[in-house]
Amino acid sequence: MAKKKDAAAMTFADRVIDFNKHVHFTGKLPAGIRIMNPFREDENIIPISSTFYKKFYDDYNTRHLILGINPGRFGGGVTGIPFTDTKRLKNECGIPYTGKETHEPSSVFVYDVIKAFGGVEAFYGKIYINSMSPLGFTSVASNRKEINYNYYDSKELTDAVYDFIVENVRTQIALGVYTDVCFCFGTGKNEQFLRKLNDKHGFFGKIVALEHPRFVMQYKSKTKQVYIDKYLEAFSEVMDVL
Question: What is the CATH number of the domain that holds 96?
Fold first, then answer.
């Protein structure tokens, strides 16, 4: 039997991979809502995501944390890597993928920011992205099509996953991130929820909210560069940006 690594000897990548292997929601969800755990639903996700983290996070560096909402069906729900669809996984991260190709607008914007930051190695060397809920949710629309669902879309779901989210934020911090500033994807409900959570638990010294990548791509695509510049300015206040 392989001996488990001592926690102090684990790299950032090792910690994330271990988290991904064990993350699980055991609570009861509201009727009509399904949990989406790609790490348990697809045997290829752990190897794919582990390759990513070993490539970009296999060190002992501390990083700043970005918290999104929860994974979507075409990004983290397919690759196991937040805001990384299969196109970006192959073309930007250089990691082979042979399954069904996915395209997520949020991923497009995030990787535009990453390019402006200085590239994947520079960005991931300083920043770690996860979400308030590390697992996604779906519901079934009137046309019987499965659609993404956010943890804040109903009070019933928010209440059901509240403790799960609190524990997840604690776990993300323990991976090895700075707690002076946490960046938040979303200037609406995600920001409001995170600020209330932070006021209660004192996780971070400061919350810096940025427009969600999906919002930018859906409503502000013509002025996308404005938001890329805003991201870089926010990052530059707490870290070196190339």
Answer: 3.40.470.10
